[in-house]
Amino acid sequence: MALAGRQPQWPADDSSVLTEAFRAGPMEAYYATSTPVHSTAEMDDLRTRSRPLPSTASPVPIVQQVVVQSATTQPLDPEVAAAKAKTAYIGDRLAAISGYPAGFCHGMVNLRLGLGMSDAEVSSVIQTLSSETQTDARLIFQQ
Predict the structure, then answer these.
(1) Cβ-Cβ contacts under 8 Å for 13 (sequence gap 6 or more)
(2) Which of 32, 67, 91, 142 would disulfide-bridge 106, Cβ 3.0–4.6 Å?
(3) Which helix (H) or strand (E) holds 82?
(4) Is there a domain that residue 92 lies in?
(5) What is the average per-residue pLDDT within 88-116?
(6) Band of pLDDT at residue 120, cut at 50, 70 and 90
(7) Which of 52, 36, 53, 140 is nearest to 90 (CA)?
(8) Between the CA atoms of 117, 120, 126 and 131, what dihedral angle is there, to the nearest 10 degrees?
(9) For residues 51 and 41, is the Cβ–Cβ distance under 8 A?
């Protein structure tokens, strides 16, 4: 759900959705843990080893090389371009009402189950699309 743009709803700690072992929590919570004590010598040795290595100052300047490649684009078929534009348009309208990102609101997504929209929200989207564009009522009102 988080990838789709919604905050995940985590069940309560005593929920029956979670298994018994998961509700019990980590074993470390039931045992006293002691933090390991490091000696000063060990810490000094760690600090010494974690320092950056000395580098030799070279008089040679660093040259940054940038390679530019021109992308050859294929001409887009007008029908394909129109289909992509329609998909993006409908996705934007659905995203405004459902709260999901527009890229998630395309294809054969179920508006009620997939996007969690109510009947009123579905009607609102249909009214918005009908008022902004020419629509075919036979296709829109298929359930």
Answers:
(1) 23
(2) 91
(3) helix 78-98
(4) yes
(5) 86
(6) very high
(7) 140
(8) -130
(9) no
